Amino acid sequence: MAEVTLHKLNKKFDTTHVVKDVDLQIRDKEFMVFVGPSGCGKTTTLRMIAGLEAITTGEIRIGNTVVNEVPPMDRDIAMVFQNYALYPHMSVASNMAFGLKMRKFEKSEIEQRIKRAAAILGIEQLLHRKPRQLSGGQRQRVALGRAIVRDPAVFLFDEPLSNLDAKLRVQMRVELKKLHERLAVTSVYVTHDQVEAMTLGDRVVVMKDGVVQQVGEPLELYNTPANRFVAGFIGSPAMNFAEVTLAENGGHPVAEAPGLRIALPDALAARARAKVGRKATLGIRPEDIHLAGAADAADHCFEANVEVVEQLGSEILLDTRVGPATVVASVDPMVKVRTHDKLKLALNPARLHLFDAETEAAI
Amino acid sequence: MAVTALGSTEVVRPSVRRRRLEDERWLALVLLMPTAILLGLFIAYPFFEGVMLSLSSARVGDPGEFVWFKNFVKLWHDSIFWTAVWNTFWYTAVTTVFKLGLGLWLALLLNRHFRGKAIVRAFVLLPFIIPTVLSTFAWKWMFDPTFSVINWSLFKLGLISARINWLGDADLAMTSIMIVNIWRGVPFFAISLLAGLQTISPELNEAAAIDGARPWNRFWYVTWPLLLPVTMVVMLFSVIQTFADFQLVYVMTGGGPANATHLFATYAYQIGIVSGLLSEGAAVSLAMFPFLFVIVVAQLLYIRRVEVR
Question: ipTM above 0.85?
């Protein structure tokens, strides 16, 4: 069992700087998810941990060993690839046995381990088949099996579910989570899907342009995003943003935009007071907006024109126009709303987010 | 509605010819006809004529008569013919081994990333692109005992003190010819195998590296088995071409010294065209057929087995 430590990690390909000064401590037995848009450097970081990509500067430690110069085979890791990377000419059993065979395990030991892994993954009846005779989900299981039999210190996953159809992906996500609970091995998981990141990760690293934006537990990222990028990336449907000017109304800080004047709650107001007169970005998640009722204070309400109504069954998403901005609200499914309706919406002031217009950092 | 509509459309019946073509067997026959005619005219007929020629006593200016297997019996007792048979097998076997080995090595090198990769790949093809007769002439001069750049180099390096008569000695002549054939054939292997290597996902090698396979094991357990179908096809082509090679020997030695370097093709030419004994030349050519047939069938069967895996 092992911790993985990244220290001032950098990667450059010729002139492009794809990973910039990444510092990260992945704890023993932790499930750490790297998430970000494509090209953000998450996969490159994973490949550096695996030893498939040379480190430009910085240091990677697995356990207590600096592994910068250690070849992949001696890092005690196992990796699950996006395209499974199963050896097409070998049976499922041989695929799983390969790593053990290369490490000169006893034949009986190999058989025993394959049996155990196959039982865990429910692929006992597939052992004699070739990869091309398997469905996507089955191949994924075999790829997992190949990693499990090795009993490594660290599991690395490179977007392992992205080639599966939506339904299977949800199912495998749950199985991966169970598997991690059962095996309790340090895992590093790369994905571009924020739902996967939120559901699987003990902690999540959000990356953009090679830079770590925020590291934290899923709800921490959701509730207190460190900057506008994280706020917009985590959560579905995405957070609403409005460009506002910070002003004072009767001594209390407010956020103003055409058609909108929102009184800031006390905690936010205290931090915003110093920036009065400056521009900022106001953020509110669709699920923190509701139809205005008697209990809502007037300065947390605004007028909205409904442009699109999306019935999801468990909720209704309203795409509305507020002044020049578009605001998405998630409202109670029992409400009757139609396109072109004029509504009064209210937001939950405790759930407001405010970001600096220039640095985009949370205020 | 639909029923009445159906009932009223019985009038126009397609013509007989039309209906024939609706039948897949007839259609297949019609579509295959052009190919069958071409193959028959340019392959089956000449082959049949060749067989008939080899069973006759024709020579230049004399149509001859049917003599059954007389020409083959004569060949059976012809020591030069047996030298040519042995030469052809030896030549094919040795050059194929070297072409495969060097071609594979080159392909593996070219499959790596380095600066100027595209240019090097293009250059590798050069021996294959230059017309064989021209490049072979150049080699012939290089092997010349007096003016030879090879002898000159070896001499200057102090490795030899007397001239080596490359093409004048039976064994050396055969070796020289093989060297030229290998030089010319390696690019074909290299480029074809490189194309095969590029279809193998790099992820497989990465997975194997993480699985603990050292470079040699990665090649032996992952790359080589996946490359095998391509390798077998390339070998098949190469063996057929080498077995029936003509121009290289013809230009370099003309079958000499003292008929020591004859292959099937050059010996057939020597007898059939140079000596004018058409029927005996045809018999030599035709003698190549059963050998080649066995080799090709064996290889095709093996390829099928490899591909089914």
Answer: no
